[in-house]
Design a protein that fits this description.
The protein is mainly alpha-helical. It has a domain at about 20-70. Helix content is about 90%, strand content about 0%. The protein has helices at about 1-35, 40-90, 95-105, 110-130, 135-170. The radius of gyration is 26 Å and the shape is extended. The two termini are about 25 Å apart.
Length: about 170
């Protein structure tokens, strides 16, 4: 019995891929067949269905991103009040009181201060780079460099997260 469980654990990723593939085939097949009935070859039908799927997914993501971003910023603004409220509720129980103390001691600002200090340092560097240009050019340069650094920070965060995830699997 133990060997069967071990084998199932080892084959689980393969079985999961097969199940997802079968679900995709079952979902996509009617659309592909409908295009084939209209005279489109099977290869072009599959390509059209998947391009349509990913285009729809991208459009949905672009529509959903602004409200999600707004909610995230609202949540960050409300974090201190939520933190205080949750800490108060946790402190009412003797088992969760130590968690409440830890929650009270946590400061989101410390995470953000490091970023703000780096941004302030970078602004000084931008001012030195753009001292001979017009204010509009200097502003555009500073904005472009700040955007580039934010994108690089985001990519770095994703890579670190992926590394942590792969380290946990090993």
């Amino acid at each position: 019995m133990g060997g069967l469980v071990w084998l199932l654990c080892q084959l689980w990723p393969v079985l999961l891929v097969l199940i997802v593939a079968l679900i995709l085939v079952g979902t996509v097949s009617p659309w592909v067949e409908a295009l084939e009935r209209r005279g489109v070859s099977r290869g072009w039908s599959v390509a059209a269905v998947f391009i349509g799927f990913w285009g729809g997914t991208l459009a949905l993501g672009l529509l959903a991103a602004p409200p999600l971003w707004k909610q995230l910023l609202h949540f960050i603004d409300d974090t201190p009040a939520l933190q205080t409220s949750l800490a108060g509720q946790l402190s009412q129980n003797t088992l969760t009181a130590p968690v409440a103390d830890t929650l009270r001691a946590f400061r989101l600002e410390k995470l953000l201060v490091g970023r703000r200090a780096r941004d302030a340092r970078d602004e000084k560097r931008y001012d030195k780079r753009s001292s001979g240009s017009s204010p509009e050019e200097a502003g555009a340069l500073a904005s472009a460099i700040a955007t580039e650094e934010r994108v690089l920070d985001a990519v770095e965060g994703v890579v670190e997260s992926a590394e942590k995830t792969s380290d946990k699997k090993e």
